[in-house]
Amino acid sequence: MRDRHPIPCSGVFVVALASLSLVMGSWRAPEVRAQGCSPAASTCPAAPINIGLREAAFFGMGIGALMILDEIVWEAVSDVRGSDGTIALEPFRALGNGAAFALVSGGTLLAGWATGDEALTRTGERLVATLALAAGVVNVTKFIVGRSRPSDGEGALSFHPGTPGSSFYSGHTTMAFAMATALSDEIDHTAATVVLYSAATLAGYSRMHDNQHWFSDVVVGAVMGVVSAKFVYGQWTIFGLRAPSFLASPTGASMAYRLTF
């Protein structure tokens, strides 16, 4: 039998993903005044960071590199499956459940409407928008890519395009990191940020531990969850597309987009 060290491997993954998410989550727009803002304005917003073709290309290459490691990481995680905290991971599995995010975001929005608190209502709108965007993109991607799950036994590079609910990328991880990023921005406190991203990381690890996702599925899910929230909160733009503006009320909601080049 080979001498392996599975628990350190799991620990390295958790620390690495948590560190990556914390860096991304704290990556805010530089102190550059938005175009058209008066130099005399004291509350002029910072210009958002734009995710363009260069960033997308690097991201695509990174996905390819991670996929090469998928079966190696899967083997290491398999060694400890059922022996390194299955029960301890149970609370974190729920964090990636879309119902949990829907409860938090919908509850916040309803509370804002019921109390007439505009700030709370705005927070609820942003959380709902983040949930809708993250869930929509991940489900479309799953259908298009159609990647086999580890539990299918077909290997990390088996794809069946047009298959709903496939492995790439992890929806649970996406939801967990989208919620962590959105709540972190709302609370705006270092301790809360560390707790939220750590919990989201464990939610992502649980998907690998449960043999539902490959390593790259989880990492991409984490990145896309952060991107979804940063986009909705107006801190990042994607190919010049700015965040949606929700104009919500108890009787309905509308969405407006602004595209800049």
Describe the protein in words.
With 261 residues, this protein is mainly α. It has a single domain (65-256), classed as Vanadium-containing Chloroperoxidase, domain 1 (Up-down Bundle). It is 59% helix and 6% strand. The protein has eight helices and four strands, in the order αβαααααααβββ. It has helices at 6-25, 53-80, 90-93, 98-115, 118-145, 171-187, 190-209, 215-232, and strands spanning 49-51, 236-238, 245-249, 252-256. A hairpin with a 2-residue loop joins β3 and β4. α5 (118-145) packs antiparallel against α6 (171-187). The protein starts with 5 loop residues before the first helix and ends in a 5-residue tail after the last strand. Mean pLDDT is 78; it is low at 1-8, 29-35 and 247-261.
Give me a quick take on this structure:
This protein is mainly alpha-helical.
